[in-house]
Amino acid sequence: MTGGTELPTRERPAPAPTTETTAPRADAPAPTTGTAVADGPTAAPSPALPEPALDEIRLEAVLHALADPVRLRIVGELAAGHSEMSCIAFGLPVTKSTSTHHFRVLREAGVIRQHRRGTSRMSALRREDLAALFPGLLDSVLAAVGRQPAGPPPA
Amino acid sequence: MTGGTELPTRERPAPAPTTETTAPRADAPAPTTGTAVADGPTAAPSPALPEPALDEIRLEAVLHALADPVRLRIVGELAAGHSEMSCIAFGLPVTKSTSTHHFRVLREAGVIRQHRRGTSRMSALRREDLAALFPGLLDSVLAAVGRQPAGPPPA
DNA sequence: GTCGAACTACGAAAGTCGTCGTACGATGGC
DNA sequence: GCCATCGTACGACGACTTTCGTAGTTCGAC
């Protein structure tokens, strides 16, 4: 079963590279240009957190980001009429550390954008961007989330 | 950041339980009823491989199954006008062992169905089932696969 | 009967992922 | 200035995923 064109091997949906305003994690992708960070002439960190540009968003990374119940919940609530929400507003059943991890996965995949507001981090869906890149994908996922029962299938 | 309703924890998109006709893998989910296995009165294994029933297919498992470049390639080729294909026909750039692993992930998530034909394993998309469960999802993914460049984003 | 081919179970190795606790920084209120 | 709150970096842990090689099963051709 060998031959054919090479596929990307093993680099399981690498999150899109983002532009960093702080020291990146060791495993964070290298920063790139074209980020949507809005900066003044000051050197102070921007309130917007680094996010991938439109052409850096990959289907595998988006699907991987959505293939988790916690992240599906976050995306569902962001879609339910809220233009933006702070992390604490979600009432997630995991610790703050884990929540921060999930928000970062969503942001680095290009599913959400975040900016600071005081001590809070406001998150919003990149609805138009995802609709432009993968028409109908987010709507299908949100429709499915709205009616799928929570939790694993019955024993 | 605690509170709110419990989400399924950690059970990372558990593949839907399937009905087995052979000894399951140690980590395979327990067999369930309602499988689409077509059997005669004989005890011989059925040519159809076990697959989850419609109500056992979970969004997270489907998204997880699709969040991999090898499996996206398989699904893309199955969608490209082929009603069914044998495993060897895909020319995947991984070994037979790994290919078998990927086909099993797709089948257990409910994305494809498989049956034996001689020494071959014929695979087909569960197009109507997925359209019924998650309208527009598969079409969006296939449309995106058709135009997304292969491989990781440029350095 | 043997043989070749397709396919898989099993186990191992390496890497990834989700979880958490701890310690810290940034912000706003006082 | 201190304090409370929000959020995060870091590291650790356990489980999961992807990869492959090996040995085996099943099927069809001869």
TrEMBL record, chains A, B:
Keywords: DNA-binding, Transcription, Transcription regulation. It comes from the Bacteria. This is HTH arsR-type domain-containing protein. Residues 1-51 are annotated as: Disordered. Residues 51-145 form the HTH arsR-type domain. The keyword tRNA processing does not apply. It comes from Kitasatospora indigofera. CDD domains: HTH_ARSR. Coiled coil: none annotated. One of its GO terms (molecular function) is DNA binding. Pfam families: HTH_20. Residues 17-46 have a biased composition (Low complexity).
